[in-house]
Amino acid sequence: MSRTALEGLRVVDLTWVIAGPFCNKLLADMGAEIIKVESRHKVDGLRMEGPWKDNIPTGPNRSGLFDTMNVNKLSFLLNLRVAAGLDIFKRLVEASDVVIENFSSGTMEKFGLGYPVLSEVNPRIVMIRLSGYGQTGPYSNYISFGPTLQAISGLTYITGHPGRTPVGIGQAYPDYTGGLFAALAILSGIRQCRRTGKGQCIDLSQYEGAVCVLGHTLLDYTVNGRIPEATGNRHPYACPHGCYRCKGDDRWCAIAVYNDKEWQAFCHVLGNPAWTSDPAFATFLGRKKREDELDRLIEEWTIERSAEEVMESIQSAGVPAGVVQNVKDLITDDCHMKAREYYQEMEHPPIGKIVPEGIPFKLLGTPGSLRTPAPLLGEHNDYILKSILGMSQEEIDKFASQGAFK
User: Fold this and answer.
1) pTM strictly above 0.90
2) Which of 61, 39, 73, 65 is nearest to 349 (CA)?
3) Residue 249 annotated to the active site
4) So what's the pLDDT on residue 1?
5) Going edge to edge, which strands form the sheet with 252-256?
6) Options 175, 250, 292, 329, the catalytic residue
7) pLDDT at 219 over 60
8) Which end of the chain is more exposed for a tag (fewer CB within 10 A), N or C?
9) Using one digit for the tens of pLDDT, what is the confidence trace for 252-273?
C-alpha cells in the first residue's frame, strides 16, 4: 500500500461545525491521524443537525453533514471539565504534532490549556486557533457564523442583482476558505518546526480569509475610489456573460465571452444567425450597450437545447461554458467527476451507504484516500488510550471513575 503524504502527522482536533473539521478532513485524506476530541457535555454541533438518514433525527451518529466533514478521523470522548480529563489531554498533546481549536477567544485559557501551557508539555507542538475574527482586535470576542461572516467580509454586498436586497452565497463560504487557509497554515507551521525544532501558535481569522477573496473589488476602491456593487450574472469585462435558460425544467448554462475572438467562435456555434452580423454587436462596447437584447437573443437559442448540449458545443469552440448543476447532476450524471473518481461510496454503520466529499487533488506516488467513515461518538477511546498513550486498563478505569470520559 502506498504511503500517504502526511503519514505520521498526528493532530488533536478540538474543532466543530465546518471550518475546523473541513481543514482536518483535508489533512486526514492525505494520511494525517486526526483525533477528534468531544465530550458528552459538548459534542460537535453537526452531529445534531441534518440532513438525516430517512429524515429521522435520532442520535449523534446519523447526520449526513457530519459524516461528510469527518471521514478518516478518530473520535475520542474526553471531558476537559475535570482534572483527570485535562491530565489525559496533556499526555495526548505530548504525543502529537498539532492542536487545532475553534472555541471562542479565551476558552482554551479558561481550561488552562493556552499555548504557553501546551508548549511546556510539548515544545514542538504547533497550535492553530481558528476563530471567526482572530484572537486580537475589537471583534475578537464576537460570535461568528457563516452568513454573518459573508456579510461583514463584503461578500454579501457584491452578491445578487443590482438594486435588489443583497443575498447570501448559499453555503457557509467563509468556513471553507477558513479551513483551506488553516490547512496551509498548519503545514507551514510543521515545516518551520522541522527546520528549527520549535513549535508555534497560529492565529487565524476566518473574517480575513473571506476578505482576501474579494479580488478586484478591493483594488477598484483603492485605485479608483469606486465601491463595487452586485452585478447579478454580468461581468464588467465580458459580454455575453450570464446564465441562460435551457431545455427542460429549471435547466441553465453559464456562458462567458471575454474577447472578439471568442465572440466570433460563439456566433459560429449558434450558426451565425442574422442578428450576429449586426454592427452594434461587432465590438465588446457595442455588445455591452445592448446586453439585455443580446441575452434575450442568446436564450432563444439555448432554450431549444439541453444544458449539456449547450455547454459541450460552446466549449468545443474554445469558449467558457458550464452547466448550472445541482447535487444530483454532480453525483449521478457528471461523467467528468466519475472519470476522476471524486465520489466514492462508503458504508457507515448506522446509516448505510454514504457518498462523502472526495479529494480535489491527486499526488503522484502518495495519493490520499477515503479510508474510514466518520467515527461514532467515542468510537476510538480504547485505541487512543492504550495504543497511543500506553495506558493500562487499571489506569483507564481510574480515570473513568474521576469522570474523564463523560
Assistant:
1) yes
2) 61
3) no
4) 45
5) 241-245, 252-256, 321-323
6) 175
7) yes
8) N
9) 999 999 999 999 999 999 999 9
